[in-house]
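Repro:
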Amino acid sequence: METSTKRTREAGRAGIYLLLFLGALAGTVLVTWVLVRMTERKQETRSPFVKLVELSEISTDPAPWGLNWPHHYDGYVATAGDRFYGGSSALPQSKLETYPWLKRLYAGYAFSIDYREARGHAYMLYDQGVTERVTKKPQAGACLHCHASTTVMYRREGLKAMGQPHDDAALAASFNMEAVERGFEAVSRMPYQEVLALIQSVPDGTPSGDAPFPPAPAGGFTGEYAGQPLPEGHQSLGDAHPVSCIDCHAPNTMKLRITRPGFMRGIAELAASDAAVPHLPSIERWRAGDRSKRYDPNRDASRQEMRSYVCGQCHVEYYCANKDTLTFPWGNGLRMEQLEAYWEAKTFPDGEAFYDYKHGETGAPIFKVQHPEFELWSQGIHARSGVTCADCHMPYERVGAMKLSSHNVRSPLEMIGVACQKCHSVEEKELRQHVQSIQGRNLELMQRAAEAMTDMLDAILQAKAAGATEAELGEVFDAQRKAMWRLDYISSENSRGFHADQEAARILGESIDYSRRAQAKAIALRAGEPPSTAEIPIEPVKGVSDRADR
């Protein structure tokens, strides 16, 4: 009996020892795994990329960049995954069909022929090249300033003009902004197809024998036309690329930088003005200095400012036709009326007063707005709060231990969790409804402004039919231009009013006002002098009390 009990105790102790051993083993394995993972994550933080290929100042093809930074590259490629709208030409939905009044707004201008919804960055060059604005009307090469990766071509043409070496080795060696600006001046007024050919002729940094970055299929990646090849008559882009990595990053450091000469000149002119720019503190610091050198964002701006500046290279208002070099109108400031005043004071090199086009119905000289996202954002609460373009459209995200800025550039409404709720502790549904409410009100007010514009145009045509002269219509044309500039300003800006909703409402309100003023003046010209009202009996104005009547 005692022997049996003793054996039982020994067996129990052995079981306990075994459990302790297994527990210690499991704990050791767990601790080892945790330590290994911590080491891996720390290493990821220290070395966010593995350098597999050498990049240089001719690496316009994003594919080699993707070998070093695959997560960023995956995001860039994802910009070709936007919802596809379909259509006979495998292109996005026509805005002219959605908003028929745009045809009258742009009458006499190429936008009245073809004007479509935007797709992702991967399509920005292809969609421009096949629009009927380019295929049916001659356009200036300045249009490619923002739609293609142009700086290698600008630099080569600039080095040529400066009499300096411009072979592949010289182009790959360093970035030379002076040469970029010189080349920009040389080609800005050249025809579109000639400048595109120049872009296609420069090296793109693709290793010999490797295929270049494949352009997004004409039909998109989803929907009825997914993967559709180039329609007949649509040209291949060859080695020309849409805006890519090198247009915003230095290839040796990945540091954000400005490469577009139009922006460099525009922001320097803005800095030299006395316009208030509280959301751009580096300009205020530069103004307080000796100003011996022009403001240079690559030297003077903070990294946070650069997260908006790199977007402001393209998402802005500018002139880009063939009568002058591409121009950003920032010399008076970034408000709508400051841009307007800049154009009103500008003349072309031949001395003619500036205008973009003569209106096809009335003949009035008109200013055409491009896409002033940077300017309208500058008037909004997010800019004043230090929130950049990238904070909302390219928000930070975690990939392992790495903190990356998403390169799938898109609407914050598609990623509210990381784009909005990092700052706003509000339910996603409520945030979405708030944005949609702002955009809905903006659309309603824009439609009212469009109705006022069409009434104005009808009245002007009737006045001309009644015999009104160009001289008599001078004030009417001025009001027409102001009305259409304001309507175009908000309808062309891609946030649908969200970037600065109160400012957008103010601008549309002024558009309605100017349209109605022009309409009233045109009606007066059509109808002649109004009859006298002196004989019409009028009830005297009475007060609300006996004292008011005394």
